[in-house]
Structure formats: structure tokens, C-alpha cells
Amino acid sequence: MLGRVERSSTDPARPAPTAAFFDLDKTIIAKSSVLAFGKPFYQGGLINRRAVLRSAYAQFVFALAGADHDQIERMRAYLTSMCTGWDVAQVREIVSETLHEIIDPIVYDEAVELIGMHKTAGRDVVIVSSSGEEVVAPIGAMVGADHVIATRMVVEDGAYTGEIERYAYGPEKALAVVQLAEQRGYDLAGSYAYSDSVTDVPMLELVGHPYAVNADRALRKVANEREWPLLTFSNAVPLRERLAGMRPEHPVVSATVVGAGFAAAGLVWYATRRRTTRS
User: How many Å apart are CA 47 and CA 82, to the nearest integer?
Assistant: First the structure.
């Protein structure tokens, strides 16, 4: 297990900031974020019909049982091979143009509530995902995240080479969280983390408040052994409608900080309401 970052502050009377770290797929949204863009990538000429069908099948398997380590590794190899040579500007344009159409219907209402509660409590919200930055960053801005940690592909002459600069998966996710916490001065013992996959146990172990969301079988077992709360997210919400009229000029949603006691009470209530008794 990676060590926790200790509380640090230049002013001993002022507590260090905390954060809430969210996995993306099956935690904030109901599908694999990368595979969700199969159709617009096909329409943009980036992939062929066979790749679209393969992506649809992968989504089906992902929705049924989640993706284990081997499946994720095969998916990673397939996706990196498929995107070799893609024009980065075109990918970003497609994601930008289709973001709300693709992502809005699959955002969990419960995740939006939690993000809002954490921001109201004064915590930074960080999305930590093994999906590519070109997909994760726009989704993060859409749901009000302050930072994103995502997989970064090597780019040369404006195109993907097929090599990976940073693979935000498993222990590497946890390492990236530690690095960000050191940069931002987060007190990880007072921070929160949410994920659906056992591969994110290294990240969940870092914080004082880990939560298993829509947990796969292996993570559910770990959560029960360690008495981590189990949450079930199931309600999709049209995010654009929900946030209509609520956005400030800055693209990241901000919230007024209220008393920490009130915010903590709200989180306890929410966790109790959503906690499941599955074993």
C-alpha cells in the first residue's frame, strides 16, 4: 500500500485542504467513457463498422459484470492499437461536439449530488480515470471537477503514436493521487475516494473515507472485509438540464463553502441512504 500524505499546512491553525477522488466509469457514468464514443468516432471516419460492433460488445460485457484486470488490459491494448495515427485535434473536436449527446444521459444522479456536496464542503473534486485525457477532461469540466487524472498518450506531429506516456490504472492511479496531493497539500486522511473496481483498491486505501460504488464482486469482498461503505448508483440524469442556470462563468462549477459540520452530516446521511447490504 502506498503511504498516506500527512497533513501539511504553513498555518497550524488552518487545516490542510481535502479532496474527493472519483473514478469515472460506472462511478460517475454508467458506461466506459471511451467506448461510449464509438459511434461518433465511426461517423468521423476514425474507426470502421467492425470496431463499432466490438465496442458495443465490450460495453455489454462491461455493463453486465464490470471489467476485470485481464479484460481491462486487453481493452487497453486494443484501444491503443486502434487509435494509433489518429489526429488529436479531430478526436478533441468529435468529443467536444458530441459530449452532451453521449454523456448527459448516462451520468448518475447520485454522483452529481455527491460532487455538489463535496464542493459545498469546500473539497476539490478530482476525477481519476484510466480513460484518455481527451475524453476525461471535457467530462470533468462538465460535471464540475477541479482536476482530472487520466491516461495520456504520446503525441507526435499532432497524431497518437500508439505509445502511452502515463497509464492511470491500478497502482499508477494511486501514485498519481499521491503526487497531486503533494502538489496541492491535500490531507488524504481527511479525503474521500469512490470507485467500482477492485483495481482501484490502491487508490481507495490512500484516503480516510473510501467508498465502493456499484462494486464488482472482488471489490465488494474487500469492502466488506474492511468495512468500507457500499453505495449503489443507478439513476441517470440529463446533466445539462440539471445544471442549467447553475454554472458560473468559470467552466468548473464552484459552490459556496458552508460549515464543515453541516457538510459532514449531509455526507453521513447520504452514505446511510445509499449503503447496500449486499455481500
Answer: 8
SS3 of residue 204 by DSSP? helix
Q: Report pLDDT for 164.
A: 86
Query: Where on the phi/psi map is residue 255: left (φ > 0), alpha (ψ -120 to 50), or beta?
Result: beta
Mean pLDDT of 95-119: 92
Give the per-residue pLDDT at 48: 62
CA-CA-CA-CA torsion sign (145, 147, 153, 159): positive
**Per-residue pLDDT tens over the stretch 13-33:** 678 999 999 999 999 998 877
Residue of 25, 146, 196, 216 marked catalytic? 25
Has 25 been annotated as catalytic?
A: yes
**Distance, CA of 196 to CA of 124 (rounded, Å):** 20
CB 48 within 8 A of CB 234: no
Catalytic residue among 11, 23, 146, 187: 23
Q: What angle do CA 219, 225, 226 make, to 5 degrees?
A: 90
Q: Does residue 29 contact residue 59 with C-beta atoms inside 8 Å?
A: no
